[in-house]
Amino acid sequence: MITIINALAPIFLIVLGGVFLNYLRFPGDDFWPMAERFTYYILFPALLIFKLGTATFEQIAAWEIIFAVSLPLIIVSTLLLILSKWFWKNGPAFTSLFQGSVRFNTYVGLAASQQIFGEDGLIIAAMVIAVMIPLINVLCITVFALKTSKKAPSIQGLLWEITKNPLIIGCFIGILLNLSGATLPFWSVSFLEILSQPALPLGLLAVGASLKLTDFTTSISAIVISSSIKLLIIPVVAWAAGSTIGISGLTLQIVTLFFCLPTAPSAYILARQLGGDHKQMATIITAQALLAMLTMPLMLLWIISF
Predict the structure, then answer these.
(1) What phi and psi, each to the nearest 5 degrees, are found at residue 286?
(2) Owning domain of residue 193
(3) What digits encode the pLDDT tens for the residues 168-199?
(4) Which residues have a Cβ under 8 Å from the Cβ of 81 and sit 6 or more positions away?
(5) What percent of the chain is predicted at pLDDT more than 70?
(6) CA–CA separation, 106 vs 263, rounded Å?
(7) What is the pTM of this model?
(8) For residue 70, what pLDDT band results from cuts at 50, 70 and 90?
(9) Which of 107-116, 135-144, 297-306 has the highest mean pLDDT?
(10) What is the mean pLDDT of the chain?
(11) Number of structural domains found in the chain
């Protein structure tokens, strides 16, 4: 337990550092949105290309990751949609609860994977997000189309949004380079390695800076329900689903870890764009980021014990 806390403590301290710096308005209100954008479009793709492009995939079965990621998301999404007919009549509010239940914070996930499981964990984590991001976007857009009056993007538009996602592009390039057997010039490997080094710390600082410490009482039921699903229930479903189809070891641990993560700040943007309850979404994002500091060590202790 102490080992897990020691591994996660630096991650959450950096997130809290972002909260503190944003409270001080340092280095300025315009800095953090631009820092997050730079990390998202440049630093993280460089990290994924570098790690996947130089990785060894001999012991990683892609189909295992696809099934292990897809099953929990489809199961939980289906149950939430069924239950929404009786318990969540407010469509926009339900979309926030749904995003809070299935989205994940990429920055925290990659940092935790490397910190706890090392380079092998980071490589598997990169492959997990290559599956998770497209599927979660499809599920969320579908829920918005069903639950809000705003017109959702077309299938073609959705596919275009997914294919131009910089993290997906980074994963695709890295895997393609690896499988093609192409050898990158030494200078380019060093370039990507150096460029990717600030990705995790700057990304975590930006996560902290994006949190809004507002009044949680107006969304207490949505916070409790979405956080219970996201931080406690869906990790158990993911572990059970993965174990059932024969996945074990590091792959199962990393997949389950990603289902333990708090929801993503990007959920707020989607809520604003597609007619969701963006104020409720903001409170869920912040509450889960804080709650995850307590739940993740416990869930990781459970994960590693198997």
Answers:
(1) -65, -45
(2) 2-304
(3) 888 888 888 887 776 667 778 889 989 999 99
(4) 143, 146
(5) 92
(6) 9
(7) 0.87
(8) very high
(9) 107-116
(10) 87
(11) 1
Q: What is the DSSP string of 209-241?
A: HH------GGGHHHHHHHHHIIIIIHHHHHHHH
Q: Within 10 A of 24 (CB to CB), how many other CB atoms are there? A: 8
Amino acid residing at 259: F
Q: Residue 156, Cβ neighbours under 10 Å: how many?
A: 8
60: region left, alpha or beta (phi > 0 left; psi from -120 to 50 alpha): beta
Cα–Cα dist 274/179, whole Å: 38
CATH number of the domain at 102, please.
1.20.1530.20
Rounded Cα–Cα distance for residues 10 and 167 (Å): 24
193 alpha-carbon distance from chain centroid:
22
Cα-atom radius of gyration of the chain, to the nearest Å? 19
The count of residues in the chain is 306
Q: Would you call the peptide bond into 27 cis, given omega within 30 degrees of 0 as the criterion?
A: yes
CA distance 260 to 277: 24
Q: What is the pLDDT of residue 274?
A: 78
Residues 34-58, mean pLDDT to the nearest whole number: 86
d(CA 94, CA 99): 9
> What are the tokens at 239?
């572990």
Per the model's pLDDT, the better-predicted residue between 241 and 155 turns out to be 241
Which amino acid would we find at residue 166? P
